[in-house]
Amino acid sequence: MLKEFRDFATRGNVLDMAVGIIIGAAFGRIVTSFVNDVLMPPIGLLLGRIDFSNLFIDLTGRGFATLDAARKAVPPAPTLNYGLFIQALFDFVIVAFAIFLLIRQVNRFWRKEEAAPAPATRECPYCTSAIALKATRCPHCTAQVTAVA
Description:
Helices cover 52% and strands 7% of the residues. It is elongated and about 100 Å long.
């Protein structure tokens, strides 16, 4: 069983998948930082200085000023954190768009020109009718023609 696991773990596609997961996690952190630290502040400013991370609904009705205050309350207040959800949506859209662009470029790179199918017929040099490639006599004018291999 140990040998089977070693063989499985050292296959090329398993290692490729592990590298992809590690890079994907790092990319996710970069996108999260981009959304939280670069994208959301100007959007919040344009929408009247809204801090999306502080948009929440206090389910207790105690009226906490910030999400941090609701979390630090004893006991912690249950909240609906829709501002964090909006930020997560931005994260998802940016990651999905980046993956779309990556896949699009990979497909463009790997797309092979589809070769035109080989013709099944050729033209008779005497009567210009279509004849089979391997024909030695034209069925229309009965002329002798050279067969194409």
